[in-house]
Task: inverse folding
């Protein structure tokens, strides 16, 4: 089992709809959770971080964390064509000597006009 | 402008020819890290540095070296590149250890080893 798992997609969503991206992780004591957006050929850009159970909203983006289910999601409301990108989930995982950030392989999101 | 600068952006080299990818940040971040990104495998950490002269291996360190002689610079060295090191490389820095409050990434270096 991968430490951080995401559906690779592509996920196709009509413009104006809600895009829902999901991520599961294996380490029960993970503390920090991140969503990065990566446009094709560009570097990842941090868009959301979440540390506590529940929802965290920032503009059109909402991150949801459920530690009991080891599940973190990202909702994008009123999806725009400019939201078309790969979304990377990243989780703090315990290593052999220290914790580390592990990235999922990403979900490709396509917003169709 | 706060940024992480990597050079070169693109590099094609031959097997065995030593190369260095430079990385510099202007945010006074203590923590810096190198990742490689391959299709289907996500970002995998190569090496990281907690501060000047403090470096440690990540998940895929074989075939790479790093140094941290100054806080702002964290070069990645491939002493004898091989085709399996063909990849997209990112340098990242963070104010806090291990990127726990998020990384700032460089623009990336696409390396091809033939």
Result:
């Amino acid at each position: 089992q991968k430490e951080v798992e995401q559906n690779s997609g592509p996920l196709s969503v009509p413009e104006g709809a809600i895009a829902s991206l999901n991520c599961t992780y294996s380490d029960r004591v993970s503390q920090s959770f991140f969503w990065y957006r990566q446009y094709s050929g560009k570097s990842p850009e941090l868009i959301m971080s979440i540390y506590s159970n529940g929802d965290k909203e920032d503009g059109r983006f909402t991150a949801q964390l459920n530690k009991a289910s080891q599940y973190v999601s990202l909702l994008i409301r009123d999806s725009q064509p400019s939201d078309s990108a790969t979304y990377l989930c990243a989780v703090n995982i315990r290593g052999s000597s220290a914790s580390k950030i592990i990235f999922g392989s990403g979900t490709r999101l396509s917003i169709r006009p | 402008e706060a940024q992480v600068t990597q050079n070169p952006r693109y590099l094609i080299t031959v097997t065995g020819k030593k190369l260095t990818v430079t990385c510099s940040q202007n945010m006074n971040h203590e923590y810096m890290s190198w990742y490689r990104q391959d299709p289907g495998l996500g970002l995998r950490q190569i090496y990281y540095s907690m501060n000047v002269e403090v470096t440690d291996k990540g998940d895929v360190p074989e075939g790479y070296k790093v140094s941290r002689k100054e806080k702002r610079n964290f070069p990645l060295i491939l002493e004898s590149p091989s085709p399996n090191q063909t990849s997209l490389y990112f340098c990242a820095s963070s104010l806090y250890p291990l990127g726990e409050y998020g990384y700032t990434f460089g623009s990336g270096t696409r390396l091809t080893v033939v």
